[in-house]
Amino acid sequence: MTATATTVTQTPKLGNSYSYSHCMYNSPIWVLKLNKTSTSTGTSLVTKASSGNTGKGNKRTKGKKTEIIPESTSLPPQQQQPVSLSLDDVNPVGLGRKSRQIFDEVWRKFSGLGQISRTTRADDKESLDALLIREGPMCEFAIPGAQSTTVLVVGATSRIGRILVRKLMLRGYSVKALVRKADQEVVDMLPRSVEIIIGDVGDPSTVKAAVENCNKIIYCATARSAITGDLYRVDYQGVYNLTKAFQDYNHKLAQLRAGKSSKSKLLLAKFKSEDSLNGWEVRQGTYFQDVVAFKYDAGMDAKFEFTETGNAVFSGYVFTRGGYVELSKKLSLPLGCTLDRYEGLVLSVGGNGRSYVLILEAGPSADTTQSKLYFARFSTKVGFCRVRVPFSSFRPVKPDDPPLDPFLVHTMTIRFEPRRQRPVEGPSGMKQDLRSFKLILEYIKALPTGQETDFVLVSCTGLGVEPSRREQVLKAKRAGEDSLRRSGLGYTIIRPGPLQEEPGGQRALIFDQGNRITQGISCADVADICVKALHDPTARNKSFDVCYEYVAEQGRELYELVAHLPDKANNYLTPALSILEKNT
Amino acid sequence: MAWRLPTQLPTPGKFHHHNDDHVTTSPNNAALSWRLSLSPPLPLLSSSNSKGKFCTQQVVRFKCSASAGGTTGTQSLNMGPGTPIRPTSILVVGSTGTLGRQIVRRALDEGYDVRCLVRPRPAPADFLRDWGATVVNADLSKPETIPATLVGVHTVIDCATGRPEEPIKTVDWEGKVALIQCAKAMGIQKYVFYSIHNCDKHPEVPLMEIKYCTEKFLQDSGLNHIVIRLCGFMQGLIGQYAVPILEEKSVWGTDAPTRIAYMDTQDIARLTFIALRNEKINGKRLTFAGPRAWTTQEVITLCERLAGQDANVTTVPVSVLRITRQLTRLFQWTSDVADRLAFSEVLTSDIVFSVPMAETYNLLGVEPKDIATLEKYLQDYFTNILKKLKDLKAQSKQADFYI
């Protein structure tokens, strides 16, 4: 009893801002119990809480204290009676109070018997629903792990963002919101336990503060004007700044633990100078040797050189039937790094849009005769692009070989062959010889592995944007998507159809890749997908379009609807996304 | 404008004829039926000699306020010019209650903008704000505080009931009448009201009587509405049986043969929103019941089995409850208690508080397997709580615990 009292008296000192903290959510009762055991435990707990959250954490600290108040009042009367006799026990006032408590308790139970729609007493309720209704595992919204996850929502005041923040709060996440200015209107719009950070996505310094202590980022900000500068600042530069700040923060954390961030990429090759070309070897060969082919052979040639403009260019031609040229290097990984901690390669390349075969040689590096070859085809675009090639897409050259083990990879080869080349789209009449190629290499990096997505980006399909602006908007959005893809963070890019302001969960959704969707989607559904994607391994490193299912007008149905609505405990996201391509 | 109501109140007689052609004729009936069945007269009524007149006055009051607010036509009030109201804006009355908070959560999760009408109190309902709802202070027992809360609201969901310690009539009848009239006057487009199953069959129980009269009043008001009748909440059983059993305290039960089909409030909330969006259900009365009806004894046995310990059950015969009710009715100061105990009248009959749900599921397009059963619900509770207790014991090495 005394210990409880101590806790209560401490409370008012800690400020009058009320907010709940998530780390304490599911165990306020136990805290109290500890307090009850001894005064010192209670006090130490409080100080721990306050010292743990300095600076911005202030708000949360206050929350912890206020949490205790209702609990202390909600102690069932019997529990408060000390077991041993003390002077207090024979105090007539105390005795009277005690007897009244007991009588109240009995009477309450008695009168409760006659009820059908029972209302639990207010104090019962407080302690109960902390466990059951609000945060406990019995709540249909509860997500395991949510309480230890802090999510930064960028664009928390947008149509999607507002719903998203509420959904995250309901599920017990700690939420930070990056807003441009915190005027009353904005503050009223957001739940009160959300930590508001004022800043602009275009400004790297404020973004840096925002990502601190965050585990995940959801980006649903969008430019509010059609001005090109604004579009680029929010849709491209903003994403870039956020990914960069988040990676920097991950590095900083890793350095504190004297290691390397598990979310950072590994540089395999960077072509920035003359010297960087050393070790790369140009070779040529043919798949088959036949007389006819030999007769008409016009030859092939390739070179890898560093131009005056500062580019490393691999170029040449292959006219021989069945011929190929390739560029190869033995990899030298930094000490302590092995490729099995990475899930793929990202190449930053430019050129004239041919496709290439990436070949990895794997086996014990001491004995190259035992090496096995694995290949994956990748295509490039005219101009610069980043290509992600996951290790899972490599297949053995000999079908009998086991799947690729990235740990054993020792040599990398980029091969050009004239087979299966597609002409690039360009001005008609332009003659393309598909047998010649030019590949400008910028860097090759390995992408880190991970289970979950780190960054959810809400982009757009371009539907619903007026045609005059569409190209401009899409360009900025695509640039933002690209900067996220090459950041090395686990990403999920959601491209919803035109947004509608209506309740979510009412209609079936279509998940697709390839810009084929035609329908709109409710903001609440997009927010729901964002939340579900946070902990869904199938959502990692995927881009997809999403919209409502097309519903034909009455009597004009073309096909039967075989879909169901998203429902309670129905995780529609995993099955929908598992069939979609990764690294898109 | 609307919140300056009381000052603009004209004399009732002046407007009396004016509204007879519109809404008020039928509310009169509802009120009358109410008066006939209810023995003690309402305190508010003492000024006017007929109950019907009382209701009429109320309607006049709000009508006139709305016309003062700018609409020239007194008849149709939701056609007034101004900002269009977003269909996603809802007001939840009784949002701190067992059901209310689930409604709020569900609504927020589905993307509604939720406003909660909450009584001003020293310890504010912070959890609502933490979830992202807007809290507005008003008190149903003070009608002048209501109109301001309805501005810009599309749908009202009313799951309020008076607290056990206060007289039933203040909130449940007078408050509700004021709220419905106000909603009508301010052009609320949909009104969802939660009632009690079988409330029309038990006029002797004040709360059920009130709920039934409110249903009728709502029907007659001409508001676009849905009435949802409920049987019992699973959440209530936790405090009633599960916790005392775990605490090894005595559990009080009756030997009543009444069966109640308890339902998870989360399911109720979910079904409510499906019904709300279904235009075909407008003006209908739905009954939500759980998958199976249980007697008190069965629930206690189930709890004992799941908790793995025997309960210390104190069975109170229903007859004792009835006698207590009769006794408490004798005195003015215990009449509230008597009202509370009135359910004992219902308990004596071996009535079943349940209803076949197949048709409702069909109407709403819900799978019966998605509705939580009591076994599953209590099992989840006990698994979680026992795990917590085990963790806690390991942590604090203390033998006595409570929840």
TrEMBL record, chain A:
Residues 74-87 have a biased composition (Low complexity). Residues 155-248, 454-537 form the NAD(P)-binding domain. Pfam families: CIA30, NAD_binding_10. This is High chlorophyll fluorescence phenotype 173 protein. Residues 42-90 are annotated as: Disordered. SUPFAM superfamilies: Galactose-binding domain-like (SSF49785), NAD(P)-binding Rossmann-fold domains (SSF51735). Residues 302-397 form the NADH:ubiquinone oxidoreductase intermediate-associated protein domain. Residues 42-51 have a biased composition (Polar residues). It comes from Xanthoceras sorbifolium.
TrEMBL record, chain B:
Residues 89-336 form the NmrA-like domain. It is found in: Plastid. Keywords: Photosynthesis, Photosystem II, Plastid. CDD domains: SDR_a5. Residues 1-24 are annotated as: Disordered. This is NmrA-like domain-containing protein. It comes from Xanthoceras sorbifolium.
